[in-house]
Amino acid sequence: MAVRLYYIIHTRLIRRRARFLTARYGTISPSPGFFTDKAPGRPVMENNIIISPLGRPLPREQRVEVVERKGSGHPDTLCDHISEGISRALSGYYLSEFGSVMHHNVDKALLVGGVSEPAFGGGRVVKPIEVIIAGRAVKDLGGKPLPVDEISYEAARDVIAETVRHLDPVKDVKVTIMIRPGSRDLADLFRRFGRGEVPLSNDTSCGAGFYPFDRLERVVYMTERYLNGPEAGAAYPFIGEDVKIMGVRRGDGISLTAAIAVVDKYVSSVADYASKIEEVKRAVESAEWAEGARVSINTADDYGSGSVYITVTGTSAEQGDDGQVGRGNRVNGLITPYRPMTLEAAAGKNPVSHVGKLYNLFARDLCTSIVDSGLAEEASAFLVSRIGKPVNEPQVLDIKVSPEGADYESIRDTARLMLSEMPGMWKDIIAGLYEIA
What is the pTM of this model? Predict the structure, then answer.
């Protein structure tokens, strides 16, 4: 029940964002002269919107489909969360102190796994995890140094503490901040935003998105959310936050392979471990959203030799794996190789003008709005920017929709309206209304 509620809430957030909630967050609008929703802005180009039918066959119509999701404690997802947490902290600081979000990109994070000694009943971390944050930001203003490194350090610690409950962010993690001043030309692009103009793209990049999820995508997403949610946390406290789900559909049959980092202090023996894993397997297989799916958990385990997947902290980052920004979930929460997606890492990019973040989020929002408004049953969208051009004037916005009953003219109107509102997306991003990883 709880995971279904989470999924409904998540979907409603997407729908709300697609309707653009800037009015609600107008209270954080900064000083006069800064770009606000009421500023006139530039007119949106109309000849760059292309609408065409979705190609066939769709993923759900193919014989085989693959979908993956990495949970919040996976090293790659941790890097995404840390980078995004730092970006939001810096944005908040810049807003409160100077009335505008200044240039920054902190989307380069590397997690170097530590060394641990897990043991039934409880082990220990021998060598800490190391997290290295690299990026660019405005670090001084008028010759006055700004506490960018200090803010970034504290934000990284806070994210780690909130994300992995058995990981001590001071003792078990070493955070190194290597943020340098940004280039002059990119900082200059930001100054126009501060003068009340539409933000200018600070990269030539592309974004992609789709909506809605098909059956396999829902199963994978909801399975991980269940295993990392409060219901499973209360029933099975031994489940660590590092949960990865790989879903494969062959015809109508779905197979889920789950990697679950088991917290060692909750397990007394191999037999106890095996019993607990079997409990979790039965719980997932009996869940309504996973009806008919075959579930396998920790398939590298060898009960005979005693080799099982136990950890001290609930994440493989303590020893088994390293992490990096952009190697995990896309902005829709999944890795979907059978769907449109890009290699852009949204996490950590500035929320005002970096199209590597904005265009991926916008594509998802646009597709959601098209489908939920009844203009088409399914939609995909692709956008391409030009550095130095207004963010809401992409070179091309290519929209593909299910051809049956699609209302092309209304879809064009919706795209035109949402493009005009794109310069205000940063407010929803800073407010935390987007699930970036």
Answer: 0.88
